[in-house]
Each structure stands twice: as C-alpha cells, then as structure tokens.
Amino acid sequence: MILIISQPKAGTYLCANLLQEFGFKFNGMHISNKHFEKYDLSNLDDSRKNPLSYQHQNDLKNTLRLLDENEIAVSHFPPKKQLCKLFCSIKKVYLTRNYEERLNSYRRWLEKTSRPNKIPKNMSEKFHTYQNQWLLEGNLFHLEFNDMIHCNVNKIDGLQKFLFSEIKYDSLKSITRAKNSPSLTKI
Length: 187
Fold this sequence. Notes:
By secondary structure, the chain is of the alpha/beta class. It contains nine helices and seven strands.
C-alpha cells in the first residue's frame, strides 16, 4: 500500500490521481487518527456532502489491513512517534505546499462548498511547521504541490524510482492526465 500524508490543501487527491496513473488503486479512503471516511469516487458530488464514516475497529493497524498492497490511502497525520513506528514499513508520499497558498486554497474551497467559515487546527501555521517533521522519517518521498502543478518531470521520475526502483510510465503524460481528472476537492 501507499500512504499519502499531506498538509491539507497540498494536492492530496491530485497525488492520488497521479498514483492511479502509475497503476495503483484509490478506493476513496481518507484516514484520520480515530476514524476513516470512504468517498464514492463514482459520485463525487454526493460523496463530498455525505462520505461514509467509520470508527477504527480496535485500532488504526486494523484499518490499514483493509488495504491491498496495490491500494492508496490518504491522510493528514501528524508525525507522532506511534504513527511513525506503525508506518515505518509502508511507502509514504509526503505532500507539502506553501502555507499561504494552502490557506488561500482552503478559503476558496470553503466558498465553493458553503461550509462553515472556520479554519481548522490542521491549517494553522504552527501545525504546518510541526507536520514537516515527517521529512525526517524513512521510506518516504517528499513531493511538493508545485512539482505536480508545474509538471516537474524530474521530480515525478524520482517518485517512480522510489515506488518501483525504475521509471515505468511517462511522467509528463501521467501528471497531465492526473491534473485533468476529476478529484474529490477539485470543484
């Protein structure tokens, strides 16, 4: 399995689209500390409003067992020791984006979704800095939002080498298709 750990509004679902271009399956699972949500990717409009939410049965480890080795899950996990230990053998893609860009994107998203205009804790600058401790962990590839948006082929080739030990797909075609594909937060 591949776990995307991202700062909120850093391109989480764009990255999921990219990994699908590389042959991985995304089943719409967004994992948090206490529960996970499953989004119906065949009906994005309804799913945005009413994701299926599940409490972890016993612990997070059991939730991770629901995923096949060829599947993707997405998250915004903080870099806590117990999570780092749990995820040490899982390949992780860590997504980052400039704080101001993330905040502006979140505000635009709030306007389009008519959700309460409240900035959550995981969008704070303090959390932004704290979450970057993931960069100290192993078995992790760091990808930036702008690498995807600006089609940084060298970086996307590097992601493929991290995932497969070789370049299997045309990175430019893959990121272009990923950007043009619908996703959960692209409205």
